[in-house]
Each structure stands twice: as structure tokens, then as C-alpha cells.
Design a protein that fits this description.
- The complex is a heterodimer of chains A (111) and B (114).
- In chain A, 0% of the residues lie in helices and 57% in strands.
- Chain A contains no helices and 11 strands.
- In chain A, the strands form 2 sheets. In chain A, strands 2, 4, 5, 9, 10 and 11 form a 6-stranded mixed β-sheet that branches. Chain A has a 5-stranded antiparallel β-sheet with strand order 1-3-8-7-6, with no helix packed on it.
- In chain A, a hairpin with a 3-residue loop joins strand 9 and strand 10.
- Chain A is globular, with a radius of gyration of 13 Å.
- Chain A starts with a strand and ends with a strand.
- Chain B is an all-beta fold and 114 residues long.
- In chain B, 0% of the residues lie in helices and 50% in strands.
- In chain B, strands 2, 4, 5, 6, 9, 10 and 11 form a 7-stranded mixed β-sheet that branches. A 4-stranded antiparallel β-sheet of chain B has the order 1-3-8-7, with no helix packed on it.
- In chain B, strand 4 and strand 5 form a beta hairpin.
- Chains A and B meet through strand 5, strand 9 and strand 10 of A and strand 5 and strand 10 of B.
């Protein structure tokens, strides 16, 4: 059973526009959510996180929104840059000891 | 500062063989977690070790085992390899055993089972 789902395998956005990546989860016990970015031949790199007691967290061009009632979170990147092209994983913390990852969304920023 | 290092980078084994993967955490980090990433999927949690003790285990068969050494480095062992074990194996380190702390991932070991 996939507790964290990223239903869009890929997303293409024009440079300078907003990129919105979505993630849904089913386990209401998750209390911490993270986004990771992965380039080819590298391990995932932490991007931004949000606690379940918040509904928004912002860090520069990156903002994560959490809608607990809908069990949905999203990552907004504004403005999108070519270097943002990568695979993005959302992850949720279960019991503070492990991360449960989604399948990933490949973001391509077009010049 | 050196990040998380993993060895080997790539590995080819045949079915039934055994494999050992190694991970060195960032200096000062006491927790190491192992993940398996199958092509087209997200990383899946295998084990977490903190202060040389197992803190968590994912839904993997007993063929998978791991340990952490006094210097906090770690090994992941997989016995009786199956074709389905072919994957990228990622190691992540963090300061403590809590996933609320940022986990830093290594580049992974690509295992191919023929």
C-alpha cells in the first residue's frame, strides 16, 4: 500500500513561471513532511520541510503547503529556474524513525 | 567537509550470492539509515541504526541485515540475492535517530543481480 503518492510522474514548466508539485498521503499519523530533490547519480538532497502543526513554510523560492483535512501537500517553486530540473520526492515521517517516500515527480524547466 | 560516502559505486552479482554494502556517515552523525530505491519508485526504508543499535526496520525479509560500527559507519548485507533486489541502495546519516533531523544521503550503490 502506497501511503505517500505523487500522482504526476512528470511536469514541464517554462522558466520563470511557477512550478507546483503535489503529494497525497493516507496515514493520518504522519506528523512531519519533507521534500527532497534528486539529480542523476546523486543522492536525494533535502529541500524544505513542514510540521503538521503548520500549514505553510517558506524558504526563498520554495514554499510548502499542507492541507491536513485533505491529506495533501504541495511544493511551489517561484520563479522556476533551469537548475530546478530534477526529480522531486515528497516524504513523510512515521514514528520519527523512518521516512516514507512518494514515487517522485520529474520536473523539467524549459528555457 | 566530506558528505556521506558509500562503496562500492556499482556492483554486479548473480542470483543466490551475498553482497555487503558500506556507508560512512558525515563526521559527528550518529544515525545511519538504509533505503532501497527501485527504478521508477521512491526510496523505501530498510533499516535505521543509532548508536550501534537498530532503531527501526522496514518491511524487508530476513535476508537483509545491517550493523553499525563504533565509528558509526555501517554495512548492509543481503543474502541469497534475487533478481528483484536489483536497485539503488541509499545510505543516509543524521545527527540523531529522529527523522525530524535532516537526513543527508550518499550517492548510493547501484546493485544489479543477474
Amino acid at each position: 500500500d502506497q501511503q505517500v503518492k505523487q500522482n504526476s510522474p512528470s511536469l514541464s514548466v517554462q522558466e520563470g513561471r511557477i512550478s507546483i508539485l503535489n503529494c497525497d498521503y493516507t496515514n493520518s499519523m504522519f506528523d512531519y513532511f519533507l521534500w527532497y530533490k534528486k539529480y542523476p547519480a546523486e543522492g536525494p538532497t533535502f529541500l524544505i520541510s513542514i510540521s503538521s502543526i503548520k500549514d505553510k513554510n517558506e524558504d526563498g523560492r520554495f514554499t510548502v503547503f499542507l492541507n491536513k483535512s485533505a491529506k495533501h501537500l504541495s511544493l511551489h517553486i517561484v520563479p522556476s529556474q533551469p537548475g530546478d530540473s530534477a526529480v522531486y520526492f515528497c516524504a513523510a515521517s512515521e514514528g520519527a524513525q523512518k521516512l516514507v517516500f512518494g514515487q517522485g515527480t520529474r520536473l523539467t524547466i524549459n528555457p | 567537509d566530506a558528505g556521506v560516502t558509500q562503496s562500492p559505486t556499482h556492483l554486479i552479482k548473480t542470483r543466490g550470492q551475498q553482497v555487503t554494502l558500506r556507508c560512512s556517515p558525515i563526521s559527528g552523525h550518529k544515525s545511519v539509515s538504509w533505503y532501497q530505491q527501485v527504478l521508477g519508485q521512491g526510496p523505501q526504508f530498510i533499516f535505521q541504526y543509532y548508536e550501534k543499535e537498530e532503531r527501526g526496520r522496514g518491511n524487508f525479509p530476513d535476508r537483509f541485515s545491517a550493523r553499525q560500527f563504533p565509528n558509526y559507519s555501517s554495512e548492509l548485507n543481503v543474502n541469497a540475492l534475487l533478481l528483484g533486489d536489483s536497485a539503488l541502495y541509499l545510505c543516509a546519516s543524521s545527527l540523531s535517530g529522529s527523522s525530524y533531523n535532516e537526513q543527508f544521503f550518499g550517492p548510493g550503490t547501484r546493485l544489479t543481480v543477474l
